[in-house]
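To: structure desk
From: M.T.
Subject: fold request, one chain
Message: Could you run this one when you get a chance? Sequence is below, nothing fancy, just the single chain.
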Amino acid sequence: MEVESFENEEVAKLLNDWFVSIKVDREERPDVDKVYMTYVQVLHGGGGWPLSVFLSPDLKPLLGGTYFPPDDKYGRPGFKTILRKVKDAWDNKRDMLVKSGSFAIEQLSEALSTSAGANQLPNGLPQNALRLCAEKLSKSYDSRFGGFGSAPKFPRPVEIQLMLYHSKKLEESGKPGGAKESLKMVLFSLQCMARGGIHDHIGGGFHRYSVDECWHVPHFEKMLYDQGQLANVYLDAFSITRDVFYSFISRDILDYLRRDMIGSEGGIFSAEDADSAEFEGATRKKEGAFYIWTRKEIDDILGEHASRFKEHYYVKPSGNCDLSRMSDPHNEFTGKNVLIERSDSSALASKLGMPIQEYLDILGEYKKKLFDVRSKRPRPHLDDKVIVSWNGLAISSFARASKILKGEPQGTYFNVPVVGCDPNEYMEVAEKAANFIRRHLYNEQTHRLQHSFRNGPSKAPGFLDDYAFLISGLLDLFECGGSTDWLVWASELQDMQDELFLDREGGAYFNTPGEDPSVLLRVKEDHDGAEPSGNSVSAINLVRLFSMITSSKSDHYRQNAEHLLAVFETRLKDMAMAVPLMCCAADMLSVPWRKQVVLVGHRASVEFENMLAAAHASYDPNKTVIPIDPTITAEMEFWEANNSKVSVMARNNFASDKAVALVCQNFTCSPPISSPKSLEDLLSKNTSSLV
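Reply: Done. Structure tokens follow.
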């Protein structure tokens, strides 16, 4: 619509004569977008972007829709027709329009501010919701191309998280067959995504979604929220399988972010556009121009070696967007190739009579040559906003990578686009991003966040997702060996989140503070989509917090989590597939005794670092890691005030020449363990038989 309508002079005249046009950046103001998207979804049974909504002067919605062609076609009224009809209705039926808009907002407000009928979920519901969601996802599983559902295919990481969690629970309950089946679906899906064109094989990271069922031709936009979540699920897959295929993809994503998406002070940028100019001076941008290749370009770059590369990535003279009738319905990519791996690397190496590592190293050299050429092309627009919520997702993945990737075998080889850095460097990135937010987007006096930063903080306040996702990232920073200061800040942010967003009577969190009268709806969001819902993440945060803190706050955290989930009882019962992460949160809350790993030693020591890596080596979402250095006074003071048992364990088990771990569950702790291998073995008992 931007090109078809908003750059059209005839449309511009109608808009300027009859309307006040306002363009909303939905990333900058998700609260405004949510109001009118919800209205359109209710009005038409679905929504999407671009979103066009007509409002009265007091901001009540009168009419709305998504895409409108400029002129009447495809059986749809054109945008110019819509403008004329709205103007006519405003002139002749104004009272009726205004009343219908006011009534719609009143009805939506009532429907979306749901309250809990009880203080907690009924017994058995968390387990049933988890099972139901897994069953529904399994039925939608694409056994040929991986993923859940049909085209267009989105890499919805919350679905992967649920299936991994469900697999773990089945294994623990003595059902290894079902556990392996769930895990198999996840691993195959992750492999297909990584080998598909949705993955940027040359520069790293993932595009927004695939237009076809085979993960081949993507919408080429790259979003930070996808990168953070996908890095985490590939880390989980590596933790379970120990297959460096998955650790490589995690690094691929994180190294892309480090190279292209981080500002000088550490804030992580939000997105790169899908389209760009095909050449310098081009007047029009084209979707995917930066990422796609002709056969001739590859021949010119790689010369006599081009045939190997072309076979590996299915490069064809006529273009390769022919794997599905949905890949290129308008023939936009004729003669162009979106790189995709359709053959197994081992088979191709064997065909050439060379060891697999030699083959991959040579392939890496070819990718580096293409990367260098691509770097000279006009780049897609970089959206250099720093959004708190999305940074929280990325902070989590960088922090976790710093420990989980230490499980890679010695001598693991990497090639382009992976750098192969020491995993500790990822912790530095996470801490720098968190410090950027604290310095630029957090008020130390009021304890409030701002939503985003670009050439200064935005005027928009922090929303629920900003608090919830950042708290989650800070908890990962702490558990992966960061300072206790990160845990203290997470606790302070949780207090402020409760003050601003919590419905103390009805339960759960609203998406906005409710302080801006121009935002007509406060919504209790539960849908786990491309991003998880703030309520799902908050429930998990509360579970994690009350597993660490046993002061008076602990009961408050648990009760808020119980009440929050009770608000969404009907959703968990009847539409579990819409709330996969909330299903996980409900089950986590129902686990009687969360496993705790208390790690005691000098934080700066190699022994402490090795034990920390061992504590994070196995996949277990119902595990809390508490690192503590008794020689740091502030840490001991924090634990003495907030969990005296932890402070006593630290004091009684500290030794200057080693680090020790105590694994505790159900009021019982293991003897002190000082061997990383012994700790890893103890914590991985239930997952070794899965793969």
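Reply (cont.): Residues 204 and 252 are 5 Å apart (CA to CA). Let me know if you need anything else for the meeting.
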